[in-house]
Specification:
Chain lengths: ~120, ~110
């Protein structure tokens, strides 16, 4: 089954404790992204990757790191989480279709709480 | 950078009526405009998209129109049903590198 998976799905942690949220896709998609969703703010892109070893900042990259060592994986790293990073996080993958469109396939989401 | 705005933030319609959701964008270089639907507790899913070389696109009860001059695009849902109740996000992209900028979302409620 074609899918994007994220782990963990729920995480409660404390300020300053490094954490990693994993993301994996089995569709051989070139593009992958991380978003955070907050009430009233919609979906905001954190980082995106156009291919292996190619990443770029989105709209809200501060406090986050990513890496793309393999095409299928795109982990999100919070080196020193703070309470303002409490949010719902979505990973997504996509590919450039022949018509020049690209559908984002979202993972199930990771709800992170930083106390 | 690109700025995408959706207004209003909530919309309530009677079942069977039509719903129109509008978005504006700021970057005239944007050429790809998708719409995503997010049901409560679920992930966003693409429902329709349009490229800037097309003025309108339809898929059964939903359609999207694009006005490049005014830099706005709209989602039209006809014959609304309770299962259309969800949050709808518009987005825009220059298409060059898959960076998508989303609007803040609109909550559509369809009253039975």
């Amino acid at each position: 089954e074609a899918q994007v998976t994220q782990n963990p799905r729920y995480l409660i942690t404390v300020t300053g404790k490094k954490l990693t949220v994993t993301c994996s896709q089995n569709m051989n998609h070139e593009y992958m992204s991380w978003y955070r969703q907050d009430p009233g703010l919609g979906l905001r892109q954190i980082y995106y990757s156009m291919n292996v070893e190619v990443t770029d900042k989105g709209d809200v990259p501060e406090g986050y790191k990513v890496s793309r060592k393999e095409k299928r994986n795109f982990p999100l790293i919070l080196e020193s989480p703070s309470p303002n990073q409490t949010s719902l996080y979505f990973c997504a993958s996509s590919f450039l279709g022949l018509a020049g469109t690209y559908e984002q396939y979202f993972g199930p989401g990771t709800r992170l709480t930083v106390t | 950078g690109e700025n995408v705005e959706q207004h209003p933030s909530t919309l309530s319609v009677q079942e069977g009526d039509s719903a129109v959701i509008k978005c504006t964008y700021s970057d005239s270089a944007s050429n790809y405009f998708p719409w995503y639907k997010q049901e409560l507790g679920k992930r966003p899913q693409l429902i329709i998209d349009i490229r800037s070389n097309v003025g309108e696109k339809k898929d059964q009860r939903i359609a999207v129109t694009l006005n490049k001059t005014a830099k706005h695009f709209s989602l039209h849902i006809t014959e609304t049903q309770p299962e259309d109740s969800a949050v709808y996000f518009c987005a825009a992209s220059t298409g060059a590198n898959s960076k998508l900028t989303f609007g803040k979302g609109i909550t559509l409620s369809v009253r039975p």
